Amino acid sequence: MSYGVGMRSRRVRERLITRLEEQGITNLEVLDAIRTVPRHQFVDEALAHRAYDDVVLPIGHEQTISQPYIVALMTEALMRYGRPKRVLEIGTGSGYQTAILAKMVPQVYTVERIGALIRRAQERFSEMGILNVEMKLDDGHVGWEEKAPFDAILVTAAPSGIPVRLFNQLEIGGKMVVPVGPEKKEQQLIELTRTSEGYEQENLGSVLFVPMRAGAG
Ligand code: SAH
Q1: Which structural domain, as residue segments, surrounds residue 194?
Q2: Which of 113, 117, 109, 155 minimizes the C-alpha distance to 135?
Q3: pTM check: above 0.90
Q4: CA of 116 to the centre of ligand 1 (A)
Q5: Is residue 179 part of a domain?
Q6: Is residue 134 part of a domain?
Q7: How many independent structural domains does the chain possess?
Q8: DSSP letter at 201?
Q9: How many angstroms is it from 42 CA to the middle of ligand 1?
Q10: Of all residues in the chain, what percent are helix, strand and coil, respectively (each to 5)?
Q11: For position 128, which CATH number holds?
Q12: How does pLDDT run across 151-185, given as a tens digit for each residue?
């Protein structure tokens, strides 16, 4: 292993956990998942020394690995009323958020439109022995009809409006967390709960995600 010891050390990871707690993350299972999933293995070796800073980092193809605080916030929102069993993620990217989910729920489905990213994420899951993730190369706007319904959907790229086709793949009582808004401007992180009549909506604050693009590849 050529990684420096520093970035993997317990102290460096604990510092990140403390920072997340200070920012208001309270779910101990979420904090524990972030403590144990090795974020440095989801970025290039050249950036690994920054993996436990609470920052966005580039992963190539003009995409980024989300900031740990945002990963924590979204995961916490998704788990607020208990743990979902089948979760769909849109925007696999590095696979880091996927791995956090895979640690917490029985089955994760993830959709990514860039083939090189999905292949690299798949390698990481194999190396780490993560077996409860199924992946698909596709435009996330279509979701994954064959595997629906899901009891939670997490979207990690920003569509310009609520993605209806995806929302319809939620179970009644299921939850979707999605950053909605224009490209390169602040988006609103929205938590939607599907009800028998429609949905309830809560706003979790402003965020900045890469856009959810149309089409695969
Ligand atoms: N969850 C990721 C964040 C990746 S950034 C992580 O933890 O690393 C968002 C990802 O969404 C990018 O990889 C991008 O290619 C992908 N994406 C953008 N539009 C998409 C779409 N329509 N369908 C599927 N994935 C999409």
Answers
A1: 55-207
A2: 109
A3: yes
A4: 12
A5: yes
A6: yes
A7: 1
A8: E
A9: 14
A10: 35, 25, 35
A11: 3.40.50.150
A12: 999 999 999 999 999 999 999 999 999 999 988 88
